Amino acid sequence: MRAFDYIEIRVPAKPQYVGVIRLTVSGLASRVGFSYDQIEDLKIAVSEAVTNVVQHAYDSYDDGEIVIGHALYDHKIEVMVSDYGNGFNFEEIKAQIGPYQEEENVEFLREGGLGLYLMETLMDEVRVNNNEGGVTVFMTKYVTREQVIDDVKTIIT
Amino acid sequence: MDINIQFREEGNLLLGLIEGEIDTFTAPILREELEKIELSNEISVELDLSKVSYMDSTGLGVFVAFYKRATKEDVNLKLVNLSTRLTRLFEITGLSELMDIERGGIGHASI
């Protein structure tokens, strides 16, 4: 038997479906046993990845699709967000993003570019694959403390 | 999944109550509503985010754009009644150091 359950959904690359993906991720994450705060983190990270596709991958035509795959394990979830549009260079983008600095001049504040930073901050692992014709983002989040403490208790008793 | 913003004036203070989820679908609506506000250095603006149930980087981008315009027009802008989740989002992105934000009483809303 496989160590995980796999759920895949496919939606048009349109803004109105980002909220639908959030609901899906939220439901699946609660099956795995994530806390409220962790589920909220997951919702943001996955929305950022999907939003990225919606905003950038299909500039010129609107029949693009996004595939979101979820692998549900005992203590973790892996989410894969894949598009078949334009790729982006992870390292290059990563070099240009990050949190705002206190001394930044308000006039020149960026109004975007936080998506990837948030994904990395809110998930435990983020990997981006630039493959032929598209980009795939892999993200992993582990169930933390509360769950682990429960396990320890079980062992003690 | 909708967004709604209501304004009311109290003297020279303009209060805006934002309600709903702010993501890539709703952000353009919010952006447009905020752009409609006529700013002059005689007014202050307070945006109440207590009814914002979800927000991600697209929402932050809208507030950054509005903050830039407010600063340029010499207008005091304050975001108030932020949930614990929203406060965290402003903190991890470093925006809490730049913008005037105020946490709300009970952090029930999620981002």
Automatic annotation (TrEMBL), chain A:
Reaction(s) catalysed (UniProt annotation): L-seryl-[protein] + ATP = O-phospho-L-seryl-[protein] + ADP + H(+); L-threonyl-[protein] + ATP = O-phospho-L-threonyl-[protein] + ADP + H(+)
Superkingdom, natural source: Bacteria
Keywords, in A-Z order: ATP-binding, Kinase, Nucleotide-binding, Serine/threonine-protein kinase, Transferase
GO MF annotations in UniProt: protein serine/threonine kinase activity
Enzyme class (EC, first level): transferase
EC number: 2.7.11.1
Residue ranges of every copy of the Histidine kinase/HSP90-like ATPase domain listed in the record: 11-141
Pfam families: HATPase_c_2
InterPro entries per the UniProt record, alphabetical: Anti-sigma-factor_SerPK, HATPase_C_sf, HATPase_dom, RsbW
Family: Belongs to the anti-sigma-factor family.
Function: Negative regulator of sigma-B activity. Phosphorylates and inactivates its specific antagonist protein, RsbV. Upon phosphorylation of RsbV, RsbW is released and binds to sigma-B, thereby blocking its ability to form an RNA polymerase holoenzyme (E-sigma-B).
Protein name (database record): Serine-protein kinase RsbW
From TrEMBL, chain B:
Keywords assigned by UniProt, alphabetized: Phosphoprotein
SUPFAM superfamilies given in the database record: SpoIIaa-like
InterPro entries named in the record: Anti-sigma_ant, STAS_dom, STAS_dom_sf
Domain STAS: 3-111
Function (record text): Positive regulator of sigma-B activity. Non-phosphorylated RsbV binds to RsbW, preventing its association with sigma-B. When phosphorylated, releases RsbW, which is then free to complex with and inactivate sigma-B.
Family of this protein: Belongs to the anti-sigma-factor antagonist family.
UniProt xrefs under NCBIfam families: ant_ant_sig
UniProt name for this protein: Anti-sigma factor antagonist
Organism for this UniProt entry: Ureibacillus galli
